[in-house]
Amino acid sequence: MPASMPRRAHSTPRRSARRWRWLPALAALGFVPLSHGTASAQGSAWPTRPIRMIVPNAPSGLADITARLVSARLADALGQPVLVDNRPGAGGTLGTAAAVKSAPDGHTLLSVFDSHATNPHLFRQLPYDTLADLSPVSLLVRGPLVLVVNPGVPARNAKEFIAIARARPGVINTAVVGPGSPARLLAEMLTLTTGVRITQIPYKGAAGALSDLIGGQVDAMFATVPSIAGHLKSGRLRALAVTSERPSPALPGVPPMNATVPGFEAEAWVALLAPAKTPAEIVARLHAEVVRMMALPEMRERLAEQGLEPVGSTPLE
Questions:
Q1: How far is CA 223 from CA 26, 107, 307, in A?
Q2: Any residues with CB less than 8 A from the CB of 108 and at least 6 apart, and which?
Q3: How far apart are CA 287 and CA 125, in angstroms?
Q4: In 10 A of CB 9, how many CB atoms?
């Protein structure tokens, strides 16, 4: 069971405190190997043309950043371009549906993050079967999220932020991206674990949310390290806490959220999938290339700089 998945999740506010702890099991189910079909002559000749890697989220998000790092090295290994195709909308379900409808010939891949595991519990009906319609390739990376604020917010740490939110119920605006995103789930978790009332402002993607956060239209956000690292260095945002169990080497001096709110721990993750019935030999080749690239010192260093840990798990894992 990957340790990177958020440890608590919810489908309704009343039940979120209880259900968050079961998200690792849910996410693990998403990586149960499915039938890849019989190996074909086409599979042995693969790839015969450019590969499309669908990201069902907007640019600059964790899935997008990871997909672009992986696609460049995958293209070198396979001898064909690997083109990232952003298909945001409906919490990641639109792009996922597009991948599911694609031919299972190894020329379409899918890069997903946490919302892939929570969407079945947040939507009454999905245009695909999360387990049956996709074949797992590998868990790619995992890493903490960061509670960041606009410098206009006087809080210097999570304790001060919670005190301000408690003193001014509903006044603090927090940007959230998608119904099942880590940003949304952690905002709900903050409300449930501390009793504070904050106003959630929904965005279609991380880029728009961060733009408004920097501009002061919203006050705070839970964001991934890669998406806010540059803004922290420039002083346009301030980090208050990380959601990992321990401090992140990428953000020295930023304490873990659990130092203020016991048990407040979660990590985001990104996985690589393919349409169901993709030939087993293609899935095996993709997995082998992912494991190889994740072991490269330059890749590990690049990911560490962004607060991410390379994984490279098997489809079964």
A1: 22, 31, 12
A2: 51, 52, 53, 54, 99, 102, 274, 275
A3: 31
A4: 29
Judge contact between 240 and 149, C-beta under 8 A. yes
Nearest to 112 by CA among 50, 67, 60, 178: 67
Tens digit of each residue's pLDDT (9 = 90 or more) over 230-289:
999 999 999 999 999 999 988 999 999 999 999 999 999 999 999 999 999 999 999 999
Strands 134-149 and 220-224: antiparallel
Average pLDDT over residues 195-212: 91
Helix (H) or strand (E) holding 33: none
CA neighbor of 112 nearest in space, from 122, 129, 99: 99
Mean pLDDT of the chain: 86
Residue with tokens 């020329």: 107
**Other CB atoms within 10 Å distance of the CB of residue 297:** 7
Q: How far is CA 313 from CA 142, 261, 269, in A?
A: 11, 31, 12
223: enclosing H helix or E strand: strand 220-224
Tokens (6 digits) for 48: 């015969």
* 244 and 267 Cβ atoms separated by less than 8 Å: yes
| Widest pairwise Cα distance in the chain | 66
The token pair at 91 is: 């919490």
Kind and range of the H or E element at 224? strand 220-224
Q: What percent of the chain has pLDDT over 70?
A: 86
Give long-range contacts, CB 8 A cutoff, 24+ apart: 122-125: 122/11, 122/91, 122/179, 122/180, 123/90, 123/91, 123/93, 123/179
Alpha carbons 254 and 240: distance in angstroms, whole number: 6
Q: Is the pLDDT of residue 36 over 50?
A: no
Instruction: Please tell me whether residue 310 adopts helix, strand or coil conformation.
Output: strand
Task: State the pTM of this model.
Answer: 0.76
Residue 35 neighbours by CB distance under 10 Å = 11
